[in-house]
Amino acid sequence: MASKPQATLMKKHSQTDLVSRLKTRKVLGVGGEDDDGEVHRSKISQMLGNESKFGGREPVGLRFWILISAVTLTAVALMAVAFPSQLYETVFKEKLLAASISIRLYGGALLSLSLIMWKGLHTAEKVIIQWSLLAEVCYLAIQFLVTFVTLIEVSPVSHSPMILLLLSQVLFLIVTLYFYFHLRRRPKKI
Asked: What is the pLDDT of residue 54?
């Protein structure tokens, strides 16, 4: 038996060859915009659909509402960190007797939440915006319950700023819940 000399196989490194990669992606139909304006990174995401983007348009006023939330949370957080006794006197109409460390810690936690809202403002990812709104809903619901219980414990007649705070929390909660549930709806396919 005569042995034939084996031809050496030359393997082309197409992953490092940018032109070859571009041609391959073009053949697969990946990387360019489709009819809906979406850019798919793989054939799998093209077939399954990209859920991280908005199906159609985002709700009217969503970005403005996130901006209002982020600014409000940041302002209250900075006031709680820098001027805890003044914030306490504004809400409760009495002097702060205990240490102001608890109000400063509240301000730090609120500042963390405001950073989440700022991230939600500057992203295009639908999931990040949903989680930002959900975090705000949880915060507002807990703060409403705490403020309501505190209002019941003290006389409600002398605490009109607290009642105003409760009403503003309910308003913020309703609007944030509206946007959260609006984002959770699946887009209608045509």
From this structure: 58
